[in-house]
Amino acid sequence: MAVRPARSGGGMSGPLLRLARHVADRPADWGADLDHAAARTFVDTVACMLAGRDDPATRGVRAAFAPWTAPGPAPEVASGTRIAAPTAALVNGTAAHALDFDDVLEPAAAHASAVFVPALLALGTERGASGAQLADALLMAFDVMAAFAAAMNMAHYDRGWHTTLTFGPIAAAAGCARLMRLDAARAAVALSAATSFSSGSKRQFGSDMKPIHAGLAAQAGIVAARLAETGMSAAGEAILDGRWSFPDLFGGADMPGLGALVARLEGPPAMAAFGAWVKAYPCCASAHRPMDALKLLRQSEGFVPDAVAAVVAEVSAIVHGNLMYRDPATPMEARFSLNHCLAIVARKDRVEAADFAPAALADPDLRAFWPKVSMRIAPDLATPGAPAVGRERARLTVVLTDGRSLSETVVFPTGHPRMPMADADLAAKFDACAPATPDAAALRDLLFALPAAPDLTRITQLLAAVAAGAAQEKAPSK
């Protein structure tokens, strides 16, 4: 069944077809550097999946869907059970984003890989894909997400949409369509259908629903591509251009427009142009620049927390809005609290997942630092409507009790593609997130070598074994 022609603007002659042809026909010759970048993305995201496997959001999704979950080939990280691909993508996507430790595609302001990796790993297991095919599909998903970001950001994000669940389903559908080898006509249906799953307000930041956005987007990508494969129809070019189109409904008057989408596809691959920001800290990316600034000042000046009278962070309006909790009451809220994030950095050299646990929130030393932190919007720190890398920065001023005032500005935080995390440091992150077992170490090494894997059999065996072992260790003894 063909793509349903649009009522205005023709059927398959505009940006949708351009996107679909890119998905279906671009040669899989990304090069060794991008293949390695894709493998690193799987290492990082599987690490985050394992770290978030026991989070309340992950447990909640798994419990909610348990009555409807069918056996299948894809392992889910909460228990190691093999289930149907769409549900595995939902659970694993939620786990990947649960601790907010997963990567960011900065122009999209989206958690890209927490969507793409669970979707592609589940679907690839079902379809018998090779590691090279998974890497290829992931790089394609990055391309499509970056194209929508070029067309709609930052106007789209500024309106309060969580791009992980707005751009995420469309880009995940692109990756899944690529993995399924759909032709351009079917890929266009998958992309169009995926827009019907797009949603998600940033008001969910600090709640369990926020990480579930990544799981929903991962699941939606598989479902949209599968609907296209079965012959379903979807709107044609009108879904991207004109009244009631995706940009019309979700964008804004100041968005760059569809010309920027096409131009982005004609440029270098998104992974080469922007890369994946691999997080050094398990909290909202908006906090990372101020955190790095305080860390640099501590290292250079050697002050102790009790010597700090006040900390003032000058940030963009976007960052100010994202870090909305001054007095966090839950671990999720703490990840979106600059007060708590800076309190950790003031006292510790390393920020860990445990620093956002209930015990840390009750720590009197950390809580005593919270009132010292304030944020101020500095309009010059970000250019509205510009999705370019380097758009954001943070200025931090620390006032000491002896009257001294110290300042630091950070543009590219630790782990950003302009300040990349070395492979050895990424391996250490994986080891910190995963159980300390031989299976976990073997899984890490196989993921680093993903493009060379003839299939996913050993990878999924190890993932299931690591998850099952962790679940058994967590279970109460009888």
Kindly describe this structure:
The structure is a single chain. The chain folds into 2 domains: 15-273, 2-methylcitrate dehydratase PrpD (Orthogonal Bundle); 285-410, 2-methylcitrate dehydratase PrpD (60s Ribosomal Protein L30, Chain: A). The protein contains 22 helices and 6 strands. The protein has helices at residues 15-25, 32-51, 56-65, 85-98, 113-127, 131-152, 155-158, 163-180, 184-194, 209-229, 246-250, 258-266, 270-273, 288-301, 317-322, 331-334, 338-347, 358-361, 364-369, 423-433, 438-448, 457-474; strands at 71-75, 82-83, 308-315, 373-377, 394-400, 405-410. A hairpin with a 4-residue loop joins strand 5 (394-400) and strand 6. The longest helix has 22 residues, at 131-152. Residues 281-438 form the MmgE/PrpD C-terminal domain.
- How many distinct folded domains? 2
Question: Distance between the terminal alpha carbons, to the nearest Å?
Answer: 56 Å
- The side-by-side strand order for the widest beta sheet comes to 4-3-5-6
What number is the mean pLDDT?
94
Runs with pLDDT <50, length 5+? Answer: 1-11, 384-388
Kindly state the number of beta strands. Answer: 6
Estimated helix fraction: 40-55%
Outline the biggest β-sheet. Answer: 4 strands, mixed
What class would the helix/strand composition place it in?
alpha+beta
